[in-house]
Design brief:
With 456 residues, this protein is an all-alpha fold. Helices cover 65% and strands 1% of the residues.
Length: 456
């Protein structure tokens, strides 16, 4: 009896660890990835009869659930409409959040939330208190539905009237690219992504708008709906995200244009309007969208470097975007600025930023740097590609962007596993992963004597 009781206690302890809200999210993502890979391995999902379907299916499932967009096979030709349907469902589930989706369904069925489900939803939606969870879930679902439907209508009309697609094909392409854009996934049903639409504003601008909206983050979108342009009522997080988004989009667009304007491999052959439109896309898509309207394999080294930075920063917190997030980057920037000015407290918009927030921002940034460094080193060891392209690929995977210089399909299986690990880590979040593997968190009941090492 004692042995059985001990076994039951140990078993319940293991389940308690696995079902902890911080650990539930990675496990749920992993489960859906495996389910998606299984569906993509079905003969009905593939156009060919290749027996070697495991790696393409698994890599595509990871990329779709992690809303990245990196691919090893051509989405337009390798997968059947059924397989493409599986991919778009995985994108939608990955963007909305698996545990958030499950919680919303439970709420609709039971009309209530358990404490554990509230903790899970809070962890994934980044709400600040339990009372926000119910409202946020419905608002998130409503925002996604409205934005995706609106963009899908615009794209469908354009595909139908200009590109001579029949209504079914135009509708499917409109819906697929709308979901892929808002969720910052970057999957496209065209072999060259959006290169053939580089000069079409009715395709590029709606997709850019969806990418920006998805990258702001649901808390910011909800705040903007509530407060409008009354900037004085905006929270620090809303200000950081909105101002940071505008600043990075402007910098990215201008630098892309400056480095590519006259290069024959990229913007050179385009009209003036096409150059401006493609430069705008070059500032938007690296913000973890993954679409491309130029061949990044032909881009200049300067453009790739700027794109690396934009990808690593990413979009807004609690959004469908990846990267270390705008707020993280700007909090660290303000901390450095205040340190240079000799100020003890970090202030943003007449508000003090706590030391714990600064430590969290530093942890996220350094863990991101570590993940990219390890991934880059492994790819250099496993492939014959140079540092520039390998670093680009690593950042793109970790930041769940999906842009590539074209080397992904040729990578060996071992290198593909590295990219899958980076995509999973980037989507779940470095802090969530670190917390998920921690066995326990114990409060420190004492404080050791302080000592000041020499810094710098």
């Amino acid at each position: 009896m004692e042995l059985r009781a001990g076994y039951e206690k140990k078993k319940s302890g293991i389940w308690a660890l696995l079902l902890h809200p911080v650990r539930s999210v990675p496990l749920a993502f992993l489960g859906v990835i495996l389910l998606g890979a299984g569906l993509l391995m079905l003969p009905a999902s593939r156009t060919g009869s290749s027996a070697d379907a495991l790696m393409p299916a698994l890599f595509t499932a990871v990329s779709a659930v992690c809303v990245t967009g990196l691919i090893t096979v051509d989405t337009a030709t390798f997968w059947t409409p059924f397989g493409q349907g599986v991919i778009v469902v995985l994108i939608q589930v990955g963007g909305f959040g698996i545990m958030t989706l499950a919680t919303l369904l439970a709420l609709l069925v039971r009309k209530s939330l358990s404490l554990r489900n509230q903790l899970v939803a809070q962890s994934e939606t980044h709400t600040l208190n339990f009372g926000d969870v119910r409202a946020v879930l419905f608002r998130v679902a409503g925002i996604m539905a409205v934005v995706e439907a609106g963009i899908a209508v615009i794209l469908t009309i354009r595909f139908r009237t200009v590109y001579d697609d029949n209504l079914a094909t135009a509708l499917w392409h409109g819906v697929f690219h709308s979901i892929s854009a808002f969720n910052n996934a970057g999957f496209a049903l065209y072999s060259e992504s959006l290169v053939s639409f580089a000069e079409d504003p009715w395709i590029i601008i709606p997709i850019c708008a969806a990418v920006i909206a998805g990258g702001l983050g649901f808390p910011v979108i909800i705040a903007l709906f509530r407060d409008g342009l009354r900037i004085r009522t905006w929270t620090v997080h809303t200000r950081l995200t909105v101002y940071g988004t505008v600043l990075l989009l402007a910098i990215g667009t201008l630098m892309f244009a400056a480095f590519e304007w006259n290069r024959q491999e990229t913007l050179g052959p385009l009209s003036l309007g096409g150059k401006i439109l493609t430069s705008l896309a070059g500032g938007v898509f690296p913000r973890t969208a993954g679409f491309n309207s130029i061949d990044y394999g032909a881009a200049s080294s300067e453009t790739l470097m700027v794109t690396d930075v934009l990808m690593f920063i990413g979009g807004g917190s609690a959004s469908t975007a990846g990267g270390i997030k705008i707020a993280t980057f700007l909090v660290l920037g303000f901390a450095i600025w205040n340190e240079i000015r000799g100020r003890e407290n970090v202030t943003i918009a007449h508000r003090s930023i706590s030391a714990s927030v600064q430590r969290q921002a530093l942890s996220v940034a350094l863990l991101g740097v570590a993940a990219v460094m390890v991934g880059t080193l492994l790819l250099l060891m496993l492939t014959n590609h140079g540092l520039e392209r390998v670093l680009f690929e690593s950042i793109s995977a970790f930041a769940t962007v999906g842009l590539s210089t074209g080397i992904t399909p040729s990578l060996p299986d071992s290198a593909q596993w590295v990219l899958m690990g980076l995509m999973f880590t980037g989507r779940i979040g470095t802090i969530t992963v670190a917390s998920a593997v921690a066995l326990s968190s114990r409060p420190q009941l004492y404080r050791l004597p302080e000592e000041r090492p020499i810094i710098g």
